[in-house]
Amino acid sequence: MNSAAIQRPPIGLSSLRSSITWLIITMLTIYVLYSSKLIFNKRQLECPLPSSDISTRQNVEDSSPFANESAISNYSAQEPAVSTTAPPPPLPSLPLRDDTELKHIAFGIAASSNLWDKRKEYIKLWWRPGETRGAVWLDKKVSTGRNEGLPDIKISGNTSEFKYTNRQGKRSALRISRVVSETLRLGMKDVRWFVMGDDDTVFVVENVLRVLSKYDHNQYYYIGSSSESHIQNIFFSYAMAYGGGGFAISYPLALEIEKMQDRCIQRYPGLYGSDDRIQACMAELGVPLTREPGFHQYDVYGNLLGLLGAHPVTPLVSLHHLDVVAPIFPQLNRVQSLHHLFESVKQDSASIIQQSICYDKKRYWSISVSWGYVVQIFRGVISPRELEMPTRTFLNWYKRADYTAYAFNTRPVTKHPCQKPFLYYMGSTKYDEGRNQIIGVYSRFKESSPYCRWTMESPEKLNTVIVLKRPDSSRWQKSPRRDCCRVLPSKRSTNMYIWVGKCRMGEVSEM
Ligand SMILES: *[C@@H]1O[C@H](CO)[C@@H](O)[C@H](O)[C@H]1NC(C)=O
Ligand SMILES: *[C@@H]1O[C@H](CO)[C@@H](O)[C@H](O)[C@H]1NC(C)=O
Ligand SMILES: *[C@@H]1O[C@H](CO)[C@@H](O)[C@H](O)[C@H]1NC(C)=O
Predict the structure, then answer these.
(1) Closest ligand, as measured to the CA of 81
(2) What's the CA angle centered on 321, arms 320 and 327, to 5 degrees?
(3) What is the domain class of 62-92+346-501 according to CATH?
(4) Cα(409)–Cα(407) distance, rounded to whole angstroms?
(5) What is the fold, at CATH topology level, of the domain defined by 102-297?
(6) 297-308 pLDDT, tens per residue?
(7) What transmembrane ranges does the database entry give (predicted)?
(8) Tell me: the pLDDT tens digits for 95-127?
(9) What is the CA(70)–ligand 1 centre distance, in A?
(10) From the CB of 141, is ligand 3 less than 6 Å away?
(11) Ligand (nearest to CA of 491)
């Protein structure tokens, strides 16, 4: 007990009082000084930069080459457009942190013979014969045509000797979890990473590479992502990479797994799937999951618009459960939809479905671009913190619309008739070599719009949104940041031109 403090004489008390007074005065002074500084700084931020300032700050790369509207409208004429400014210098191509290339990745795809004819179409979408390496692992032989553009087909080893006691799951989980070891045993040369996926997983291979290039393949890495479903993650594990979304294992770690996996599997006969078996072995090796949110398990039903319209600021690596969700382009079937999305992937894989947010200041519209996929236009001002949150256009894994079901924030689909977004899906896209610019034509998805009493201008008249963007393959070598977009002047009220690209200094998504 500190008795001295209690028995302090009155003189000490008064000096304590006066020192408290001094303390208060000092703090007040600091507060006044600090807040005046804050106000001053805030003013500076709020003050819009004079336009001359902007143009001097603008570097060549940032300036819109489409200031002249007649030039934009004529893009389809394929004439060399008159450019008033000199063409921008090519972007210096920054070295990757690592020199990993596509040839260093071995894919191991888990497939089953009974779904093969349907599912192989998903594999064909992303597989690059002669470039991507790896194999598809099946339970038994299937007939395939030559030159189908598919990976080598292998038959998995016999797992009938392994124990499997889970009542809900299927024994094939054993076979599928061994795909890692079996792919390693193929003995391919010069492999740095093993990437596992299902037959209904679609990879954006450049982005697989971009993500893996951040890590040293000589270390032990287990990279992937969780389920969208909070309940699934509780039931399985938040520490597990979901197999359908795909996951990557570095070479030395795959070597370790290969040595112990068959013993490890026998210790967990009660587990459900293949991916939880992998995670159980990872836990024995003490290697945690490195999360990369671009891998998508998509344990949801319905429309992916909410998720693909507000993707986290990270490269899109994979899509899964494409048989379960609705076609991503409503006018096309599932496979056609993905082929269509891949037209944009081919032009700028790094930016595929990356979001940008801007406002039409004259018409009071909020605009959210999911590059290469869809533009959404809303009446009124919706803040970026709302727009970057996925809307629940989908149902959870139990086919219910329950907002507590997800492992991330979502927002409801608005019921207000005036707040329903107008959707412009990517219709056609082409690359203008002269300007080094991708020109995407997005057409309004004609659906009945509910009656809205607001007197403000409606996007109903707007039929086409033309999105202009320069390919930016090195964007992920910088710190993650959402692209900026800007509404360009347009003469016709049925068209809107939007520029998408790297934000200028001081550029803010604000109305
Ligand atoms: C397109 O170009 C033609 C000439 O090539 C021109 O007459 C026409 O006005 C242009 N269109 C627009 C919308 O400016
Ligand atoms: C726009 O470009 C056209 C040629 O493409 C040119 O004739 C016209 O003068 C330009 N307009 C402006 C405002 O620069
Ligand atoms: C797998 O092995 C078991 C016994 O070890 C055998 O009975 C079965 O026929 C084998 N299956 C295949 C497909 O070879």
Answers:
(1) 2
(2) 100
(3) mainly beta
(4) 7
(5) Spore Coat Polysaccharide Biosynthesis Protein SpsA; Chain A (3.90.550)
(6) 999 999 999 999
(7) 20-40
(8) 445 689 999 999 999 999 999 999 999 999 999
(9) 6
(10) no
(11) 1
